[in-house]
Structure formats: C-alpha cells, structure tokens
Amino acid sequence: MNYTLKKNEIAKAIAETVAYFDIFDYPLTCFEIWKYSPEKCELNDIEKILAAGGNGLDSKDGFYFLADREEIIRIRRKRRETFAKKIKIAARAVRYLKLIPWLKMIAIGNIMGAHNLKSSGDIDFFIVTKRGRIWLARFFSIIFVKLMDLRPQKNNIKDKICLSFFIAEDSMCLKDLMLSDEAGGKDAYFIYWLSGLKPIYEIGGWYEKLIEKNLWLKNYLPNWEATKPLAPKKDGSALFRLLKNTASFLFSPFEPLARIIQKKIMPPDMKILMNKDTRVVISDKIIKTHINDRRELYRKLWREKINKMNNENYE
Fold this sequence. Notes:
alpha+beta; 6-stranded mixed beta sheet; 9 strands
C-alpha cells in the first residue's frame, strides 16, 4: 500500500468529517473524528495527522474544529448541559409510553444522539414497534404524549416530544430511506443520525437487532461500532406484563381502524408529500413524517465548506 496516498486519504477524511459536524456547531475529539471517519484506519493514524497540523483545522481543550470556529466548543458544552434536562423529560415520557404493549424500542434521534440537543428544540423519538401494530402504537403514543402536555405545537416545540418516525420490527433495514448517493454525495445526515441513535427504552435486544439489519453503515463508517445500551432484563413485574398482554389482545383488532383515523386527520401538507420521496413515508411498516427534511440543504452546505477548505489550502 502506498503510505503517502493512504495518508492523504485519511487527511481528506478528517477534514470532511470535521466540516460536516461544523454545520451543527459540533467540534470533535480525536476519537470522534476516527469513529465517524469514512476512511478505514487506526486511531493512531488520526492522531499523527492531527498533530502534524497544516490541515485547515484548529484545536483547543481536546476538540478539533474549522479555523476560527473556537466558539463552538462553548456551544457543545452548553448543549451537553441541556441534555441532562431533556433526558429527564424523555424518561418521564417513557414511563408512560412503555405501557403501550406494541413498543419494542424508543431512541432519541439527533445528529449526535441526545448530547447535541438545542435548548429551544424538541426531542425526536425513533420508535420500533411490533409487526402489524405500527398504527396502534403510534395512535396510543400520540395520546399519551398529548395527555402529558408534551405534544409539539406550531409555535411551541421546546422540550416537547416529536413522534415523527416509527418502524415495524419486520422493516428495520433503513437503507432505502437514504438520499441517493448519485444526487450529490452521500446522505451524511442520515448516516450520522442512525449511528447516533441513543436508546432509552428497549427490551429484548432490539437496538442490537436494529444495528444488525443496518450493517451497511460500516460501508460509510468503517471505524464505527455501536454502543450497547444498558437495558433491563425484564419489562416490569409479571403482573405488569400480564396487563400489557391483555391490552394487546383487546386492542389489536383495531389496527385497521387506527390506520383509517390517522390517515384521515393527517395535515394536508403531509398528505401531499406522502410517499413522493423519503421525506414522508407512510405504510404499514414505516411511518416517517419529516415534512421539513433538511438533508439536501445540509449536503449542499457540506460541499460548500469542503470546497472553501480546499480553496484556502491552495491559496
């Protein structure tokens, strides 16, 4: 292997990785750069190249960022503090949502998991449900969140729970929801979103099953490894499980009705976008309602940052 060529590829991957997370004001540690790099390498390779400098990056307190962007260290630390507050809200919601018998897993979704949540933003839940019960699971999830006054409103999303992504257990491979690579580069947002999911409720190893169904991630993040969550071994007491099983038996026949009701009351803009592309996907296996999907914008901003870095390095 040509070491100089390999070194150049790693240096390029470092710059592109830091540039992408800069869109979200998120400086990276050396380990994070290695973990999220698209180039297969050793952590020591990253350390050597960063130590050599001359790559258009600055560093402070163990963080690496684009030149003259030191202020985002403060932003990252502030959002870390925000996480503590929002995780309590999420945990409160989960205490009630886990009463729903068809939920397999609940995770917080964000570009870097829960640790990069904005104080003014809501909390995105990604939920895995039992096969054939996705509409009932969503129906009762919305009811519970609304009763807790955690349902986002048009002008009030701060600290609310956003229920915009449900998948059934028999449809956990999410690769088809990515933007096409040919359309302007890889769908980095989706890749980092999926790799950054933070499970806060799961019984029966459903997070591990999700990762097993999405091992294609390793094609984009060869150094990344999923973090195994600490999950309870049992879903409550025997009585609790009996009550959930009874509820499942009583309500399961109403899955078709739950589908009809929810489709009927969907907002007009959601109906217009339904199954036109990957923004709003509605089926009996996937319910993804990201009307304001900004992935194309992020991809454009990423290319602009990379081009700017390349131009500055050759000046």
